[in-house]
Amino acid sequence: MDFLNAIVALSNFVLIPAIAYGSQLALGALGVTLIYGILRFSNFAHGDTMAFGTMVTVLFTWLFQGWGISFGPLPTALLALPIGIAITGLLVLGTDRVVYRFYRRQKAAPVVFVIVSIGVMFILNGLVRFIIGPEDQRFADGARFLISARDFKQWSGLNEGLALKSSQAITVVVAVLVVALLFWFLNRTRTGKSMRAYSDNEDLALLSGIDPERVVMVTWLIVAALATVAGVLYGLDKSFKPFTYFQLLLPIFASAIVGGLGNPLGAIAGGFVIAFSEVLVTYPLKKILGYLMPDSLQPDGLVQLLSTDYKFAVSFVLLVIVLLFRPTGLFKGKSV
Amino acid sequence: MSAASKEPFLIGRAMTGGYGKSGPDILHDCTIAVDPGEIAVIVGPNGAGKSTAMKALFGMLDLRQGSVHLDGVDITALSPQERVVQGMGFVPQTHNIFTSMTVEENLEMGAFIRRDDFSDTMAQVYDLFPILKDKRNQPAGELSGGQRQQVAVGRALMTQPKVLMLDEPTAGVSPIVMDELFDRIIEVARTGLPVLMVEQNARQALEIADKGYVLVTGANAHTGTGQDLLADPDVRQSFLGG
Q: Over the stretch A173-216, which tens digit does the pLDDT of each residue have?
C-alpha cells in the first residue's frame, strides 16, 4: 500500500507535471533549434513570439466566448489556435521581410543576427504588453480535470490522490500530434527534405537548385506554429503573463542546447531532461520518501533540494555540465 | 573525336580572372574544352589554378576576359545555379554530400530541380554504384571516403546533366578505391556524357584521359591526348617526376 501511495504521489506531483512542462519546453525548443539549423542564429525573440501567438489566441478565445461559442469539454482556445498560428505566421514573415532579410543579404555574421533578434524581442515584448497588458490573463475553460484527486481516492482507496488536469492531457496529446506531423514533414516531403539539406550543407543545397528564400519562409511558418502551440499549451496549463514567457526563453534555450542545437530529436529530449530536473529538484520529496522508508529513517526536513525560486538555476547547471562534457549536446547537434 | 571545325560541347575560351571583383587574376588566357564521350583532365602542380579553371567554367568566379559556351550557347553571364539548370553537373572537392541525410535522400536532393519521375535515373545510378543501393537508407556521412565520392557523383548525375565536372574526385581515397572510381568514371563517359575533371594523381588520370590540360600558373602549358602528355618529356620532367 505504501509503495503504491509513493508511486501515486510521485506521479501526481512530479511525473505528470514534468511530462506536461517537458512537452511545452520541447515544442518551444523545436522552434529554436529549427531557426538555428536553417537560419543559423539563436533566436532570442522566440519567447516573445510565443507570447504574441498566445496573446492573439487569448483575444480570439475571449471573442468566441463572448459570442457564446464553446468547444464542449475542451478549451475554446483550441478553436482560436489556428487563427493565432496564422496571425503569428504573418508577424514572423513580416519581421523576416523587414529585418532579417536585410542582414541575410549582407551575409551578416551569426552574432549580428543574435543581436538583431534581441531587438526584435524587445519590440514584440512591448507590442504584447501594449495590446493585452502585463498582467496575468486566464483563458482556460471547459472541463478542468480529467481525473480529480477525490474521485481517484474513492476509486482506489489509497491515501494519495492522483489528479490529471485536462490541460495536461491536452498538452501531451497536442505535442505528440505536432511532433509527429513535424517529423513526417521533415523526413517524408520534398520541401521538408530540402530544409534538412539546406541545414546540412548550404552550398550544396544551392547547387542542387534549392531556393533558400523559400526554405527560410517555410521555416518561419513552422516556427510560428510551434511557438504559438507551445505558448497556448503553457498558458492553458498555468496562465498567460507576458513576463513569464520572456523567462521561458531560458529553459527553452537550455533544452535546445542540452539536446544538441539544430537537432529536432535532441530538442525534444532536452525539453524533458530540463523539465524533469527542474520539477524533481524543486519538489519536496519528504512525502514520497515517507511512504518508502521505515520510520527510523524518516527524513527530518522537506528533502526539497532547491527552493522553487531557483528553478531557473537548474537549467543553467545542466547546460554548463552538458557544454563541458558534450559540447554538441546529448544528440549530435552543431557545436556552438 | 570531334570534328576540328565544330565548336566543342563545353568550352571555356581564353578565360582570365580571379576570385571577387578586385582579386588578383589566377587564370591567364586559359582554355579548357570537352566533348561528348570524352574524359578531359586538368592536371598541374600545386597552385596552378586547376580547381580555379573548373570553377570558372562553372561560374564561381568573375571572368574579366573570355567566355564559356555550353552546347553552342553563351553561358558566361549565368550563375552556378542557372548553369545547373542548363545541364552542368558539378561535384565539389569537399562538402559534396549531405552527411546527415541518407544515400537515397542525397540522390533525391540531386534531382530537386526535376519535377518529373526520376526513379529511372536513380536506378541507373544504383546500377553504376551498386554499393549505394545496399546502403541507400544509411546516412551518407557514415560511409567510407570512396563511397561518399560515389554518392557525390551520383547526386550530380541525378539532374541528367549534359556535362559532368569533378573537382579532384579521388582526393583522400586509397589507391585501390581510386582505381575503382576511375573505372566508374570511364563507364559514365562511355554513355556519351562529357566528363571534365581536375586531378592530383596526374599519371593515373592522364592514363584514362582522352584529352589532357597541363596548367602552370593559371595558363595552358601543354595540351594533348592523355597518352601524348604521358610521353612528352617536358611534361614528365616538370611534374610527373621523370
A: 999 999 999 999 999 999 999 999 999 999 999 999 999 999 99
Query: DSSP of B124-182, one letter per residue?
Result: HHHHH-HHHHHTTTSBGGGS-HHHHHHHHHHHHHTT--SEEEEESTTTT--HHHHHHHH
Cβ contact, residue pair A200, B101, below 8 Å = yes
Which residues in chain A have Cβ-Cβ distances shorter than 8 Å to B92? 203-204, 207
Contact A227, A89 (CB under 8 A): no
> B105–A193: do the CB atoms touch at under 8 Å?
yes
Give the closest-approach CA distance of B32 to chain A in angstroms.
22
Asked if B98 and A207 come within 8 Å (Cβ–Cβ), the reply is no
* Alpha-carbon torsion, ordered B139, B142, B143, B145, to 10 deg: 130
Residues B3-60 pLDDT 10s: 445 789 999 999 999 888 888 999 999 999 999 999 999 998 888 899 999 999 999 9
Residues of B with CB under 8 A from a CB of A: 80-81, 84-85, 90, 92, 95-101, 105, 108-110, 112-113, 155, 159
Q: Which pLDDT score is estimated for B1? A: 43
Tally Cβ neighbours within 10 Å of residue A31: 29
Does the distance separating the beta carbons of A204 and B95 come in below 8 Å? Answer: yes
Count of domains forming chain B: 2
Positions of E strands within chain B = 10-18, 27-34, 39-43, 62-70, 73-74, 88-91, 163-167, 195-198, 211-216, 219-224
Q: Is-contact A285 A84, C-beta < 8 A?
A: no
Residues B114, B39 within the same domain: no
Please check whether residues B186 and B146 belong to one and the same domain: no
Residue B202's Cβ-side half-sphere holds a number of Cα atoms within 13 Å equal to 22
Report the relative pairing of strands B62-70 and B10-18 from DSSP bridges: antiparallel
Judge if B120 and B109 occupy the same domain. Answer: yes
Domain assignment of residue B73, given as a range:
1-87+162-242
User: Which amino acid appears at position A289 of this protein?
Assistant: L
Choose among A196, A201, A209: nearest Cβ to B112.
A209
3-class secondary structure, B3: coil
ipTM of the shown complex: 0.89
CATH code of the domain occupying A2-325 = 1.10.3470
Nearest by CB to A209, which of B81, B92, B96? Answer: B81
State how far the Cα of B158 lies from the Cα of B72, in Å rounded to an integer: 23
Q: How many interface pairs between A and B have CB atoms less than 8 angstroms apart?
A: 55
Distance between CA atoms of residues A283 and A305, nearest Å:
8
Domain ranges in chain A are 2-325
Q: Which amino acid is at A91?
A: L
Among B92, B101, B159, select the one facing A197 at the smallest CB separation: B101
d(CA A6, CA A163): 14
Q: How far is B100 from chain A (nearest CA, A)?
A: 7
